[in-house]
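User: I want to check something. If I give you two sequences, will you return the structure for each one separately, not as a complex?

Assistant: Yes, each is folded on its own. Here is the first sequence with its structure:
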Amino acid sequence: RLMLLDWICQVSSDYCLKRQTFHLAIEYIDHYLETCLEHIPTRDFQLIGVTCLHMAAKYEEIYPPHIGAFAESTNDSVT
């Protein structure tokens, strides 16, 4: 979780997202991790992080980055 949050902080900074977007993404991640009943493989954490950051940006930002921009920030580990 810590590595994921560091990465999300870096991506948020790279795209000049609002601080509220970053915190909302963390809330989404924590809520998902709390409610998910099955084991989450480590390789899926970045996918969860990108999805939550994208949802938070859609909610908080006036002009949110395209999902493809977030996918590029994963170094092609998420398509």
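And separately, the second sequence with its own structure:
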Amino acid sequence: MELHLVAVGKLRPSYRDVCDDYLRRFRRFQSVRESEVREAGRAGSVPLQHKAEGELLLRSIPDGATMTLLEVTGVNWSSEELAVELDRWRQAGRPHVVMIGGAAGVSASVRARADSC
């Protein structure tokens, strides 16, 4: 299994440190690819921003991959629960994408594509 981390924009330094720590831990057990898509903050409105970012996010998902969307209204996992999820993704044998939406949230099409939130 290959794990993909996809985020809208660049992570703030405090989040970057935490993310790098988790990525370092994950890489001990499996391949991890990280990518960022451009923020569409100048799109003019939130719906236009969602549309622009959503298209970029959906294009970043490899064929056949499952996807977990991390968002404010989603499930909060403990470290133990995250370990269980990682093991489940690895056993599925398919690429898995962990997606972090932008500050304005994500489009309905991205949310609909998610296998879990």
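Because they were folded independently, the notes below concern the second chain alone. The chain has four helices and four strands. The longest helix spans residues 13-27.
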